[in-house]
Amino acid sequence: MPGDGAEGERSERLLALAADAESHLWGSTDAIWMNRLEKEHDGLRAAFSWFLDHGRGADALELAADLWLFQESRGHAEEARTWLAKALAAPGAEPRSITRARALYGAGILAFRNLDDDMAREAFEECRGIAQEQDYIRLDVRATTGFARLALRRGDTREVRRWSEEALAIARERGEKEDAASPLHMLAAAARVEGDLSRAKAFYRENLALHRELGRMDTVSVELGNLGALAVLEGNLSEAEPLIRESLEIAYKRGDRYVAPYELIWLGRVALGRGNPTRAATLFAAAKAQFDATGLAMDPDEGPEYEKGLAAIRGALDDAPFEAAWAEGKKMNLDDAVTFALGPPHQDASNRA
């Protein structure tokens, strides 16, 4: 706007940068855009505040909608929740636009991962309503799948399937190929929780093949890790390890700090299965430190497996070696943890070169 001055011009430039970056965050093969946003993060914070302070709620909303995935992936999830809440309530952000729906979806996912299911449900409901009004299929599918996520946390796998099948039908009838990602993932999660690992594996493999074809490495990384986890549960460690390692390598290359800790846990389960509970304890501690840093809860199908693995590790070690291994992992940053996880499987943290 005329008369906004240098700070206004900077804010508008950063708003344009975030808009350019957003489409690259979902399926990129590297961390170029994440790193660029990280470099500009302080400026983006200033821009968000400037938009709010100058009555430009619609621009604040657009910035929050474009950046929440970056913030979640880079360990700033609480900041993202705060931005989305402020922006959604700001004057000028009220119209039921696609931008508002995108912000609501982000708010719903972050609320879900912060164990605030009531807020998540409200956000998914409004998001879905706007998406249907605007005939925006992708957000209709994602918000519908959000209800499946909430059902999974309640342990209601029948409802998970109902919502996921509804979302998958919408995606296949009216959407694009990649819109099937979340419904397929949730159908696999329901089967996994029910103990039907064969059915879960079929859904994960379908989703993996689809997204390899599309070059969507975010979903490729997630489903490789899930297939590796199923192989661990089946006792097939030789099949599990390369899948989980590839998942971790992709997530780390993409700069995804949300997915990477899950793979640390499952490589810990591999180490435990191969008779190295000390290494397993270090990997579990490193993963827990990452989750604690973000404030995000583990997904409903992952949390119980973490607890089972941790109990087995504690049962395999006396208190002193467990505490020592745990302390080693707890002090690792993500770079150190990934280097350790992808290093020689016989190596313990205490004798790294």
Kindly describe this structure.
- It is built from 18 helices and no strands.
- Helices cover 78% and strands 0% of the residues.
- The chain is mainly alpha-helical.
Write a compact overview of the structure shown.
With 353 residues, the protein is an all-alpha fold. The chain is 78% helix and 0% strand. The protein has a domain at 243-353.
What's the SSE blueprint?
Elements: H1 5-25, H2 32-39, H3 41-53, H4 57-73, H5 77-89, H6 98-113, H7 117-134, H8 137-154, H9 157-174, H10 181-193, H11 197-214, H12 217-233, H13 237-254, H14 260-273, H15 277-294, H16 303-316, H17 319-330, H18 334-341
Q: What's the total count of β strands?
A: 0
* Average pLDDT for all residues: 94
SS-based class: mainly alpha
Described by the principal axes of the CA atoms, the overall outline is globular
Helix content: over 70%
Q: What fraction of the residues are assigned to beta strands by DSSP?
A: under 5%
Question: Which stretches of 5+ consecutive residues score pLDDT under 50?
Answer: none
Name the helix and strand elements from N-terminus to C-terminus, one letter apiece.
Answer: HHHHHHHHHHHHHHHHHH
Tell me the distance between the termini: 56 Å
> What is the tally of helical segments?
18
What gyration radius follows from the Cα positions, in whole Å?
Answer: 21 Å
* Largest sheet properties: none
